[in-house]
Amino acid sequence: MEDFFQLLKKLSEARGPSGFEDEVREVVVKEMEPYVDEVVVDRWGNVIGVKKGATNYKALVAAHIDEIGLVVDHIDKEGFLRFRPIGGWNEVTLVGQRVWVKARDGWIRGVVGSLPPHVTPSGKEREAPEIKDLFIDVGASSREEVEKMGIAVGSVAVLDREVARLQNDLVTGKAFDDRAGVAVMLYALRLLKETPATVYAVATVQEEVSLRGAQIAAERVNPHYAIALDTTIAADVPGVSERQHVTKVGKGPAIKVLDGGRGGLFIAHPKLRSHIVKIAEEVGIPYQLEVLYGGTTDAMAIAFRREGIPSAVISLPSRYVHSPVEVISLKDAVNAARLLAAVLERTTPADIESFLDKKIK
Ligand code: CO
Ligand code: ZN
């Protein structure tokens, strides 16, 4: 578990808001290279690792390397950066955070300031801030000074947060959505023995801004089946009824039945999903079934490309998703990697054919 923790720490602490994933991509390439036959970085920055299988069947695994971030849309005369969100933030979690701002020649530290209670207008103490009212303070005293640092409109920022261990096997940090999924994918490659299908392990970009990278990876690889790895909601905390927990941290990886919401539901390919459940039971890996209303994954973007790509999701229960203190269980994560490896090793050509077209006449 310690080796998984070290891998997760490296990935989580790397900075990579959607569209600007360079730093985390570098980590992924280095970690992936020893375990695959081929690595390609495509034109939008997806990392595609290929591990040859015994047949011409293709399996795609996807986990996204981007994280939610901020983009500067204005610099005040006094040198404060105003920003807009890249991806879905809960403003409350941003206030009081340290951030990294990507300047021309490197990253510069800043903080998201807030008004002290002493000067908060009375009656407004309990109001949640709006993102448009927040600002980043990098310590500059004028717009000119900020510009000289190489920060401009369009500069991006992410949370500054180190990974730390909690009690038992729980860990906390930023961007576990979806660096934990990426860690699971990379760890599964380490465990992986012979596979019937050739495995395309794809670290996707721009998931948080509408699942962009996965779309082109699916078109390019055109696999016979696909599995996305992502964190999912574990709302197993005070004030939330058990029905609304969705999943629980520490009870094993989740196998998704469906997710989505406003944009329509994603229903995991029923045969592929049942097949994953069967393998979890054969190998003896604890799992939870997941029905999530709100949010979706790369699988949504992969499933309905080309002639239709049977797609399913193995998810990692996570508390406080999209905050600086996301919490997952290392045991769940290692079990997710074991499950993924088992599925890739045990899915035979006959299994794959059973997911595909049936000729009736
Ligand atoms: Co997310
Ligand atoms: Zn995600």
Structure, described:
It is built from nine helices and 18 strands. It is of the alpha+beta class. Strands 1, 2, 3, 12, 13, 14, 15, 16 and 17 form a nine-stranded mixed β-sheet that branches. Strands 5-4-9-6-7-8 form a six-stranded antiparallel β-sheet, with no helix packed on it. The chain is globular and about 70 Å long. The mean pLDDT is 97. Strand 4 (69-75) and strand 5 (81-86) form a beta hairpin. Cobalt (II) ion binds next to loops.
What is the oligomeric state here?
single chain
User: According to CATH, what is the topology of the largest domain?
Assistant: Aminopeptidase
Q: Give me the CATH superfamily of the largest domain.
A: Zn peptidases
Which architecture of the largest domain per CATH?
3-Layer(aba) Sandwich
Spatial gap, N to C terminus:
52 Å
* Biggest beta sheet summary: 9 strands, mixed
According to CATH, what is the class of the largest domain? Alpha Beta
What structural class should be given to the helix and strand makeup?
alpha+beta
Radius of gyration: 21 Å
| Secondary structure: helix percent | 25-40%
Put simply, the count of helices is: 9
Bound ligand species? cobalt (II) ion, zinc ion
SSE string: HHEEEEEEEEHEEEHEHEEEHEHEEHH
Compute the number of structural domains.
2
Average pLDDT: 97
Tell me the fraction of residues in β-strands, as a range: 25-35%
Q: Tally the beta strands.
A: 18
Q: Uncertain runs with pLDDT below 50, 5 residues or more?
A: none
Basic shape: globular
Please give the structural blueprint.
Layout: H1 2-13, H2 22-32, E1 38-41, E2 47-51, E3 58-64, E4 69-75, E5 81-86, E6 98-103, E7 106-112, E8 136-137, H3 143-148, E9 156-159, E10 164-165, E11 170-173, H4 176-191, E12 198-204, H5 212-221, E13 225-233, E14 254-261, E15 264-267, H6 270-283, E16 288-293, H7 298-303, E17 311-318, E18 326-329, H8 330-346, H9 349-355
Parallel strand pairs: 3-12, 3-13, 13-17, 14-16
Antiparallel strand pairs: 1-2, 2-12, 4-5, 4-9, 6-7, 6-9, 7-8, 10-11, 11-18, 14-15, 14-17
Helix pairs in contact: 1-4, 4-8, 6-8
